[in-house]
């Protein structure tokens, strides 16, 4: 299936916070650092609240302990790369337990 | 303030006992406030602020570069501070306040910080909420540059000192070498604050959360920091100094002996062998278990791979995890507990309504027998892992022989399946029933017919036996491991298992608390499974206890009618027999530091 990539293409993914301590300092720093590497708008949504993944304190303030459901949206030229990068951070539990 | 022997109490954050002169790091003064009247003033204020941001950034980068080799793993904290420094909430907000409200930079920064603080106070998770400490550290550093005072205090002292501060940023803590700093006292922070973590890795005693420490202690005053009890003594007199010396030596000896002895077998002083095992949750905890001298894994909790997952773990995934543990521990035994989880924990594809009373709801073996597909997958993975070492399996929350029977039937059917597929497994895999429901205690003789071993899960057993929810603050103090009802239950289960010739183990927090060990040995429990860090202290208690004495203690405790009497008796007995363990061992276990 050919996906037509346009500048406005939005990728949406559902992510779950699986590491024990939730999105605390270290994971959030990893997300922000990763997000800064891509030419894409990257947002995280929890219960209707949307924040920019680059805004570390906003992401912390989203208050996401273990088990939280988050929706990741990326948009822009590197939307796909950004989504892969952030998704894999979650999948690897930020290299924590 | 020169009164002798002033006692202050805080939170023990890094163990060790130390004495030395205090060095109080004073707080910055009031935030200066003025309004800017001209555009030029605003522009200059902005320029000054941006310069301070640059300076702070340079400083953080320099600190990150210079961080000591043994603290490299904490470098992420500086990374985090760099990110906070450039965060919208702090940077843009301050700039906005300067431009739009005409605040001077210092005031604007303060306002921005207060706003973040407000946002953070609404965060429910306490770990995440606690990160306001990092924001504050960055705020203070930045403000230091702004006011030209410089936030990074230099730590050059003519003699080693005890640092007393409102709070210490990680960068500050790491910049204090252990040759310069004997101990830390801070007003802020808890057991898991950065100060505590770093003090730990530097092995510097620390007491945190001591209210108004910077006001109650003056620079130059002699201070004793007891990082085991959380106490601080200011201006000790001669007698206090002497007792401090004694205490310090006792502690060092105790710590040395406990660590040295952790690999020795847990044999009572009259030659009776016992087994001390570890509770783990993750494959990587195996190394901890080994480090602390576990004789095996007495409880491998398997919920982790299921929690918060959108999809159920596959048999391969489970097998991979289990084999890793089994392999690493071989030839020592690994006891795998099947899924102890309620239906409400599953997000999908199973949909269960949240329960009003999940502790009494559809969970553990009940859930597994209902969702046989999930259960079979796990049992199959466990059986496959059993080919790689010594595995035992146990079923949680058994309350009737029927449940145990059904679980065994399923196990046998999976065995048949594996045999047909020519996949290796341990034919004689021992099967255990967890005894954690009062009904299982009463029916132990019947359960024993189909069980190769019992494992008493004290956390749930106490909760169900006493009808106490430990998470409920109004009744938490009634959660009593030494309650006569609990002791009788343990005694009964041991008696039944002896009669039937099956092994009996105990897992749960009670099994890892040094205070209860002699009573448990006396009641006939021979296998204790606990948090890995508790093992060294517990082994030491076992080696110093004779079974005949323990039996007497248990008998006397059993003869007492009320839990108050039992507690008083056991505490007195333990204090008398193991003064050092009482003084140091329990705090050490509680702090999980050894």
Report on the structure:
The complex is a heterodimer of chains A (97) and B (594). Chain A has helices at 25-35, 56-61, 79-91, and strands at 10-16, 41-46, 49-52, 69-75. Chain A has 97 residues and is of the alpha+beta class. In chain A, a hairpin with a 2-residue loop joins strand 2 and strand 3. In chain A, helix 1 packs antiparallel against helix 3 (79-91). Chain A starts with 9 loop residues before the first strand and ends in a 6-residue tail after the last helix. By secondary structure, chain B is α/β, with parallel strands linked by helices. Among the domains of chain B are: 6-23 and 179-257, Phosphohistidine domain (Glucose Oxidase, domain 1), CATH 3.50.30; 39-146, Enzyme I, Chain A, domain 2 (Orthogonal Bundle), CATH 1.10.274.10. Chain B has an eight-stranded mixed β-sheet. Chain B has an eight-stranded parallel beta barrel with strand order 9-10-11-12-13-14-15-16, surrounded by six helices. The radius of gyration of chain B is 28 Å and the shape is globular. Residues 150-154 of chain B have low confidence and may be disordered. The interface between A and B is medium-sized, with 28 and 29 residues.
């Amino acid at each position: 299936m050919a996906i037509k990539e346009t500048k406005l293409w939005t990728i949406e993914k559902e992510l779950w916070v699986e590491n024990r301590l939730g999105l605390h300092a270290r994971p959030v720093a990893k997300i922000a650092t990763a997000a800064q590497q891509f030419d894409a708008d990257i947002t995280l949504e929890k219960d209707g609240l949307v924040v920019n993944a680059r805004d570390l304190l906003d992401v912390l303030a989203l208050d996401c302990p273990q088990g939280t459901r988050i929706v990741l949206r990326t948009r822009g030229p590197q939307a796909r790369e950004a989504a892969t990068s952030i998704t894999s951070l979650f999948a690897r539990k930020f290299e924590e337990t | 303030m020169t009164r002798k022997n002033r006692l202050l109490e805080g939170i023990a954050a890094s163990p060790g006992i130390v004495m030395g002169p205090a060095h109080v790091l004073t707080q910055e003064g009031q935030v200066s406030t003025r309004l800017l009247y001209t555009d030029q003033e605003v522009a200059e204020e902005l320029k000054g602020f941006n310069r301070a941001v640059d300076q702070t950034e340079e400083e953080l980068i320099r600190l990150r570069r210079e961080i000591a080799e043994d603290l490299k793993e904490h470098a992420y904290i500086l990374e985090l501070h760099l990110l906070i420094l450039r965060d919208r909430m702090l940077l843009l907000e301050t700039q906005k306040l300067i431009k739009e409200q005409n605040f001077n930079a210092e005031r604007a920064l303060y306002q921005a910080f207060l706003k973040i603080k407000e946002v953070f106070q609404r965060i429910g998770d306490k770990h995440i909420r606690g990160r306001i400490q990092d924001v504050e550290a960055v705020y203070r550093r930045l403000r230091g540059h702004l006011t030209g005072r410089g936030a990074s205090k230099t730590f050059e002292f003519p003699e080693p000192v005890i640092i007393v501060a409102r709070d210490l940023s990680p960068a500050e803590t790491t910049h204090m070498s252990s040759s310069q700093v004997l101990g830390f006292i801070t007003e802020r922070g808890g057991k898991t604050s950065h100060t505590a973590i770093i003090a730990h890795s530097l092995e510097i005693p620390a007491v945190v959360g001591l209210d108004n420490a910077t006001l109650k202690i003056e620079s130059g005053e002699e201070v004793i920091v007891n990082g085991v009890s959380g106490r601080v003594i200011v201006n000790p007199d001669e007698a206090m100094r002497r007792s401090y010396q004694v205490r310090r030596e006792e502690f060092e000896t105790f710590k040395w002996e406990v660590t040295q002895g952790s690999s020795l077998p847990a044999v009572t002083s009259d030659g009776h062998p016992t087994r001390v095992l570890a509770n783990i949750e993750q494959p990587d905890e195996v190394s901890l278990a080994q480090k602390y001298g576990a004789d095996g894994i007495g409880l491998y909790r398997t919920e982790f791979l299921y929690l918060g997952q959108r999809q159920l773990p596959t048999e391969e995934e489970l097998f991979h995890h289990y084999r890793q543990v089994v392999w690493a521990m071989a030839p020592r035994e690994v006891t795998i507990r099947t899924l102890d989880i309620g239906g409400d924990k599953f997000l999908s594809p199973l949909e269960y309504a949240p329960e009003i009373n999940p502790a009494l709801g559809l969970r553990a073996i009940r859930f597994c027998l209902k969702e046989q597909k999930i259960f079979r997958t796990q049992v199959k993975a466990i059986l496959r892992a059993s080919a790689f070492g010594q595995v035992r399996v146990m079923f949680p929350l058994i309350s009737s022989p029927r449940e145990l029977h059904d679980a065994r039937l399923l196990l046998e059917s999976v065995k048949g399946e594996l045999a047909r597929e020519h996949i290796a497994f341990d034919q004689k895999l021992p099967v255990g029933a967890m005894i954690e429901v009062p009904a299982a205690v009463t029916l132990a003789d019947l359960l024993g017919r189909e069980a190769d071993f019992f494992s008493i899960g004290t956390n749930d057993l106490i909760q169900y036996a006493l009808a106490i929810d430990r998470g409920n603050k109004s009744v938490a103090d009634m959660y009593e491991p030494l309650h006569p009802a609990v002791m009788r239950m343990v005694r009964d289960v041991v008696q039944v298992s002896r009669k039937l010739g099956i092994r009996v183990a105990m897992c749960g927090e009670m099994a890892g608390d040094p205070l209860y060990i002699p009573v448990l040995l006396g009641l006939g429990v021979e296998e204790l499974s606990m948090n890995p860090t508790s093992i060294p202290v517990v082994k030491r208690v076992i080696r110093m206890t004779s079974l005949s004495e323990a039996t007497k203690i248990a008998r006397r405790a059993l003869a007492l009618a009320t839990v108050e009497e039992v507690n008083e008796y056991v505490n007195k007995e333990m204090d008398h027999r193991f003064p050092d363990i009482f003084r140091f061992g329990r705090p050490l276990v509680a702090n999980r530091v050894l």
